[in-house]
Design a protein that fits this description.
single chain; 2 helices; mainly alpha
Length: about 45
């Protein structure tokens, strides 16, 4: 049972990563690096 939970969690994380990568592709490099810059500054 816990094995199934682990796989569903991994699948959810993978879906989130794919979604983020798609958003990054759509955005310009400038806005993406700017956002990453703010994420690094904020604790």
């Amino acid at each position: 049972m816990e094995n199934t939970n682990t796989w569903s969690l991994l699948a959810h994380i993978f879906d989130s990563l794919v979604h983020v990568l798609r958003l990054a592709q759509v955005r310009t490099f400038a806005s993406f690096s700017q956002e990453a810059f703010f994420l690094c500054i904020l604790p």
